[in-house]
Amino acid sequence: MTRIAICAPATAITPDHAAAIEQLVADEFPEHGVHVHPQCFESWGHFAGTDLQRLTALLDCANDPQFDAVWFAKGGYGSNRIAQAAVAQMNDAARQKTYVGFSDMGYMLAALYRAGIGQPVHGSMPVSARSEHGREAVRRVLRWFSGDGSGLEPSLDGKTPVVAFNLITLAMMVDTPMLPDLSGHVVMVEEVSEHLYAVDRLFFSLSNTLPRVAGLRLGAVSNVPENDREFGMSAEEIAQFWCARAGIPYLGRAEIGHTAANRIVPFGLASPARGS
């Protein structure tokens, strides 16, 4: 049995979201147990509670030895405000856990990875359990918790370390104490709700600041807003352009992103399935 604690380091979910994930686990994954921290329903402006409330809830979940994993409830924005303080206060129990999320949770995953705490994992989050398409993405994570590796990103080979981030999240972490050493890694990036000129700008920044990585893969670039003129390049052409300019091997596409097809990417050297 995997005992999973759910907290919200960024934005809140509703009791209906919590009920949906609890019902899905009870009906289809009885080998797991989920505990939704009440902080997930707090509200303080944009955030799921104040910075202190979110930090306290995260530490409650991470430092409690009765839980095997921490599953971040939702992205949005806000985990960067507490990530460094969180890893500085995590105990030995926290170091044994798996941490799952993506999008804004990339700040947390990066900070954990840099600190060598637990197993950070890019994967879909409980907030998606209310819709049919979203439920399948959530099932993918729950199957992985059960040892089923079928939901992993297909390009993982277990030989080259990998990370996966939202593009703007990764760009914002450059030159901060949260960014881990990505030398020799395959870096996977995806983006949502950004104009293509903004995607180009982000690649410009990253191509000039990333270390000597093993290569880059591009995930989904979804919900691109219409602009007053065509940019003239696709998202993949943008990635290829900046990779070529920076001497970064472009390795093709990755099945990650803000879509129901979002695949699982354990940071570092991935094993075929959890615990194997």
From the alpha carbons, calculate the radius of gyration and give it in angstroms.
18 Å
Q: Main β-sheet: number of strands, strand sense, barrel status?
A: 6 strands, mixed
Distance between the termini: 15 Å
User: What number is the mean pLDDT?
Assistant: 96
Approximate shape:
globular
Taking pLDDT < 50 over at least 5 consecutive residues as the criterion, the unreliable ranges are none
Strand content: 15-25%
Family: Belongs to the peptidase S66 family.
Protein name: LD-carboxypeptidase
Organism: Alteriqipengyuania abyssalis
Domain LD-carboxypeptidase N-terminal: 4-122
Account of the 3D structure:
This protein is of the alpha/beta class. It is 32% helix and 18% strand. The chain has eight helices and ten strands. The strands form two sheets. It has a six-stranded mixed beta sheet with strand order 2-1-3-4-5-10, sandwiched between helices. The chain has a four-stranded parallel beta sheet with strand order 6-7-8-9. The two termini are 15 Å apart. The relative contact order is 0.14. The model has no long low-confidence stretch (mean pLDDT 96).
Short description:
By secondary structure, this protein is α/β, with parallel strands linked by helices. The chain has helices spanning 15-28, 51-63, 83-88, 106-115, 132-145, 167-173, 196-207, 235-246; strands at residues 2-7, 32-36, 69-72, 98-101, 119-122, 162-166, 186-192, 215-222, 250-253, 265-266.
